[in-house]
Amino acid sequence: MTVNERHALEALRDPVLNDVADECIGDDYESDGYGEMVLDGTEPLDVSHAGGEFQELTRGLLGDFWKSTSEQAKGKRSDYHTFRDRSTKQTAAFSVQTGAMAEAYMVWSLKHRGTGGKGFFDSDEQRTREEQWRSCDGVGTRLLSVLVLDVFCGEKTSITVGPTDRYLTSALLRHGLIPCSPITPKVAVTVHALELYHTTRQRCPHLSIQAYVKSLCDMHGVPFHNHRSRQFSIVLDVYLQVLAFVSSLVRRALQRDQPDWRLKHCCPPCTYRLQDEPAMRFAMLFAQDGNDSLKRVATRILDGDIDHVAASLPASERTFHHEQYLMREFVDKFTSDRQTGNSIVNEDGDGNLCAEHWKNMKDDATQKMWNVFDESGVFIAVCRHGFCLLVADMVQSGEQSKYALAVTSKLLDAFGSDLGGGYDIGCRFKTTLASSVLGERARSLNYTSLVNAFHGHAHNRLCQLDNLTTYVKGLGLEDLEGCERAFSKSNALASSTRYASIFHRRQAIASYIEHNDELEVYANLTKFLLNNYKQALDVLSNGRVTLDRLMRELGVSDPATFKLWLDEERVYLKSLLCEPPEETLQMEYWQWLVNLATSKQNLETVLSSWTIVTPQSAAPISSDSSATRRRETMRRHAQENYEKDLKAVQELEGRLGITRRWVPEDEEWRAAARLVANRKYQRALDNVERLVVSRIFELSKMNQSGTGYKLRKHIGKALQTRSVAIRAALTQYNAAAKALGRRTLEFEEVVEYAFLADFDLLRDTRQDISTRPWASPTARLAINTYFKLCQAEEEVVRLNVEIRRMVTYLVDEERYVRACEALYQDAHPMLAYQISKYRTVRSRFTPLHLHYLEKISRLPGFNGMLSPGISMSCGLGDSAGVPERVHMETVLSSSVVCADDGEEEVDEDADEDHGAALEEHCEALQNILSVTVDA
After folding, report:
1. Beta bridge partners of 450
2. What is the C-alpha radius of gyration for the chain, rounded to an integer number of angstroms?
3. Within 10 A of 218 (CB to CB), how many other CB atoms are there?
4. Mind giving me the DSSP string for 823-871?
5. pLDDT confidence of 607, banded at 50, 70, 90?
6. Which pLDDT band, with edges at 50, 70 and 90, does 747 fall under?
């Protein structure tokens, strides 16, 4: 045990040191007190789409009990080698051999191309190995006995190790096997079995390693043991490491290994710009958002380890790096940028009007996170076609602004000017960005912060007029809700990554995103373009007829009138942001006058009250003095209240310049009374709006796939309670509305309200807006129809550009990659074959793309071009560039692995006993948790 490890264990045992360690986590990371506040009801319990937070929170609070049960169930022998020690040593040994294994894999892959995926124990393969056994001389060539696990069979066999094999691992990979040990392999898994799991898991993220290994054991007819899952996990890591090494060689051969090359070329319709294209306001549209389903339980909760001491780990400790992943260090550079402004308030305002509807606008909410979790979710950015651009882990916090700032900074570096970014709190992020270190740069590059279409309808109406996609010129029909569609699929990863290490969690997320981009999003690109083109043409066809009819009803001859109406509505709503100061003072003065009249009446009542005492009713002196003191106290209180109210009235008369005190018969009194009634009316309306918005969000949550049964029951009960609360709030609202002679609302009408704009038009009581031309339902339908038509015309222009980009990319990419493949065919046939596999990843969908492009060309109303254009990018690695042969250095490592210096055989039976005992304790605790939850 190292010194650092011993200090860490002492810190865990010593509560004082624990407190010190907790202070090092940071101000944004809440202690266990937050979890206790959740359990006692002080703080709300936020449940993600994937669920399971309550169980993990309880585990965290019962961590000492969990740790003690684990120690009691420990194995029969003392082993001072930690899992981290063995893992670090194993990883270092495999890393040294990666180059040789990658070359052996390329040899095997080239040899078995076109074989139709025959299994390792296929008859032809078996005969080939038998011939190799007979040629083995025992000197230059020897046999290695290993247990081989294939998809349908698993048995011990002998593998020839030739004189050219530098490592046992590379010798096994030459036969299509990957070992679970770098020095003395005794078990190996076939590449076919690994490829099957890796591919299947991308299609079904719920599939875990244990479930897959159990399935193999069932097909092999053998019992399952836990160590098989650990072996398969090791082999899978090696397999993915080899694939990553081969992929880096391919990218280098294609001259596509420059920093951020994938980010700049991920989406052909967005990034493959052509010469002589029409100008568009937004060069690229993307959406960004956070999701809290992909949490990871911190390892200190289960085994007493601490994730945040990783800085003291050996240099050989595995860290996962991927070009799509933003490192924590990069994100933390934006931590100091605080949100200092607000987007839609007047000059004296200090609050965002949308903040009440959005938790991620409140700093005190986003800074809190249960310390049972290390990574609390992911923050991603996707282009309008669905390609994932960037991913960042949300660490020990909620959805703070630093993640959006880091993503925006990276995209500005990669794509430059005229970007449009959708965010569910885009109005708040606009001012956050302006006040950050990126503010000046974002303004110079003409960056625009937008609000998504679906989320935008939960924003204040004035915010919608400035930021909602419906009213922003140049967006077309894009809704900027790509993140929600991405999260609806990636949430399936939650169950298999909740307890993973940092490395394996990132590995799973990155692999899933890469697979989804290449085999889902890219495959549906032209289908996306076709559907959007159909939608735009339908809007243009039907919308024009509808708009003409509405314009005749409204008596409008020029469509430009709708823009004027929208500007008038904006001016009107800005006038409602705050009450005029004079009106506020008048309402306050009126209220104090009412209070003064009440206190004066109370004082007169007390002073005019007499107590008549007769000989028959005379009381003892002691009780009579007590009653006298009570009456004197009542008189003194009434006098003090009267003097307090009188002083407040006199002060306000001085501020308002009133020379004669108002009385109920005065016009000023009646006007102020109406203003107070208006305020009560608006507050009642605010309450109804809040309850209806909560109901909308709860309904949407209840309809989401993946919502658990218990959560559905909880939401159902909340909806019942919410309905009762809405009826009570409606009663108060209708009473206030009747006092003003305004329209009352019915329950059936209110629950159908889907947009906050429906409430905003009910607010003003200082002026009657029912006579405004833009306030009628017909006028509002006409305004929305007009802007929808404008969007459809913009969408057609953007789609024509993107369709031609796609056609040009298909031609240029096929030509470039084939040319590169030909360059390496003679000198490096193995590399040339890997380049051909790289090409087929996307070229398999070319016939599908051509089919949809033909459908687009036949659409009535299509006015674009399907002829290839000329790309503006002709540099290194670009599809329109000239391929050049790159000098490929040898992939073989110059160092030789030493003999085994202590890699011991693990007692699997002891581990099985320990695992079984621990599982029993875990099951018992889970039963306790289940009873607690049900109660």
Report:
1. 422
2. 36
3. 11
4. HTTTT-HHHHHHHHHHHHHHHTTHHHHHHHHHHHHTSTT-----S---B
5. confident
6. low
DSSP string, 683-715: HHHHHHHHHHHHHHHHHHHHTSTT--HHHHHHH
**Residue 247: closest CA among 323, 347, 162:** 323
pLDDT at 524: 94
Long-range pairs for 412-416 at CB < 8 Å and ≥24 separation? Answer: 412/438, 412/441, 412/442, 412/445, 412/447, 413/260, 414/260, 414/263, 414/264, 415/264, 415/271, 415/283, 415/284, 416/283, 416/445
Q: In the structure encoding, which two tokens stand for residue 320, read together?
A: 């996962």
452 vs 463: CA distance, rounded Å? 12
| Alpha-carbon span 906 to 87, nearest angstrom | 13
In angstroms, the CA 779 to CA 770 distance is 12
What tokens does 47 get? 């449940």
Average pLDDT, the chain: 75
The pLDDT, as a whole number, for residue 319 is 65
The 10 Å CB-count burial string (b at 16+, else e) for 421-455 is bbbbbbbbbbbbbbebebeeebeeeebbbbbbbeb
Give dist(CA 456, CA 468) in Å, integer: 6
Spatial contact of 762 and 685, defined as CB atoms under 8 Å apart: yes
DSSP string covering 534-545: HHHHHHHHHHHH
Strands of the sheet containing 187-190, edge to edge, are: 154-161, 142-149, 187-190, 177-179
Q: How confident is the model over 458-479, as pLDDT tens digits?
A: 666 777 777 777 888 888 888 8
Q: State the average pLDDT over residues 108-119.
A: 76
End-to-end CA distance of the chain: 44
Distance CA 813, CA 843 (A): 9
Q: What is the pLDDT averaged over residues 314-323?
A: 58
In which residue are the tokens 């009473």 written? 735
Residues 6+ apart with CB under 8 A from 112: 118, 176
Taking 3-state DSSP, the helix, strand and coil percentages for the chain, each rounded to the nearest 5, stand at 60, 5, 35
Once rounded to an integer, what is the mean pLDDT over residues 229-245?
93
Listed as own residue / partner, the contacts of 854-859 with beta carbons closer than 8 Å and 24 or more positions apart are: 855/530, 856/526, 856/529, 856/530, 856/533, 856/803, 859/530, 859/533, 859/534, 859/537
Helix (H) or strand (E) holding 287: strand 284-291
Tell me what the mean pLDDT of segment 419-432 comes to: 87
pLDDT at 413: 93
Q: Note the pLDDT of residue 130.
A: 61
Which of 280, 282, 283, 285 has the alpha carbon at shortest distance from 422?
285
Identify the CA nearest to 761 among candidates 460, 538, 539, 497: 460
Structure tokens at 562: 């709708």
Quote the Cα angle for 877-883-886, to 5°: 85
C-alpha closest to that of 61 among 88, 31, 21: 31
Count CB neighbours of 41 within 10 A: 8
Who has greater pLDDT, 33 or 381?
Answer: 381
pLDDT tens digit sequence for 534-565 = 999 999 999 899 999 988 888 888 888 888 88
Indicate the pLDDT class of residue 716, thresholds 50, 70 and 90.
low
Q: Is 554 helix (H, G, I), strand (E, B) or coil?
A: helix
pLDDT at position 773, please?
75
Q: What is the pLDDT averaged over residues 893-904?
A: 37
CA distance 179 to 157: 13
Neighbouring CB atoms inside 10 A of 931's CB total 9
Task: Output the 3-class SS for 373-398.
Answer: ECEEEEEEEEECCCCEEEEEEEECCC
DSSP H/E element including 159: strand 154-161
How many C-beta atoms surround the C-beta of residue 767 within 10 A? 11
How far apart CA 558 and CA 561 sit, in angstroms, is 6
